[in-house]
Specification:
Layout: E1 2-8, E2 15-21, E3 25-33, E4 45-50, E5 56-66, E6 73-80, E7 86-92, E8 102-106, E9 118-123, E10 129-134, E11 139-146, E12 158-163, E13 169-179, E14 185-192, E15 198-204, E16 213-218
Antiparallel strand pairs: 1-2, 1-8, 2-3, 3-4, 4-5, 5-6, 6-7, 7-8, 9-10, 9-16, 10-11, 11-12, 12-13, 13-14, 14-15, 15-16
């Protein structure tokens, strides 16, 4: 749902920030130290954009942080887009990240919301799945790519990706192989919609469906409780 980079400016305490989502791409945001920080919860940096007249507009904040389990440094970022929606993300490093740079990832976890969803997936020759996920207000062409380095049963079997308006590849979710109580194989999906809301769905194989073809359905509804 979010990708991008946080890069240090040479011989400066500043950074540059570029963000890509399913709805917009923003490049060249300026990240500068907060000279007025007086409390621990105050941001360490301000995130700034340029207005059409060239003036500085503060559009977000950034905090230094340390991973509880990993002990690695990262940054927590909050940015408000031009429509007034605030996006939260972390800037982290991995073994593949260029020296000094950070990669943007959406915040892990969070609550999912129920949604009417449909679509289909079909297995490709290389073991990936490609298709469409749709609801009332979006239709996304998605690709599910096998996770080759899965190291734990809880880790996903597929990562779900989509392309942003400017051509950036964004990971919007994950999928797990699963088996129903009846013994039928299906995929459990967790993904972000373009506006940033998080959802879950299942991809099932219907009777008489071609091998490797799945239909996407919403999670089974829970029975309503009678009023006391």
């Amino acid at each position: 749902m979010i990708t991008g980079t946080l890069k240090p400016v040479a011989k400066s305490p500043n950074f540059t920030l570029s963000i890509a989502t399913l709805l917009f791409d923003i490049a060249g945001l300026r990240v500068v130290p907060n000279e007025y920080k007086k409390a621990d919860n105050h941001p360490d940096y301000h995130i700034e954009a340029r207005t059409p007249r060239g003036n500085t507009l503060r559009v977000g904040s950034m905090w230094k942080a340390v991973g509880v389990n990993s002990g690695n440094d990262y940054y927590s970022i909050s940015v408000t887009d031009r429509n007034g929606k605030t996006w939260r993300m972390n800037a982290v490093r991995s073994d593949n990240t260029p020296k000094g740079e950070f990669t943007l990832v959406p915040l892990a976890g969070g609550e999912t919301s129920p949604i009417m969803v449909g679509g289909n997936l079909k297995m490709t020759d290389d073991g990936a799945l490609a298709g469409i996920i749709e609801s009332y207000d979006f239709s996304m062409n998605v690709v599910l790519i096998p996770v080759d380095d899965k190291q734990d049963e809880k880790h996903p079997d597929f990562r779900m990706e989509i392309t942003s308006p400017s051509g950036h590849v964004i990971r919007i979710g994950s999928a797990w192989n699963a088996v129903s109580d009846c013994g039928n194989a299906y995929l459990s999906l967790s993904f972000y919609a373009p506006a940033g809301s998080q959802h879950r769905a299942n991809a099932v194989q219907r009777e008489r469906a071609e091998p490797g073809q799945f239909n996407i359905i919403k999670l089974a509804e829970q029975p309503m409780q009678e009023a006391a």
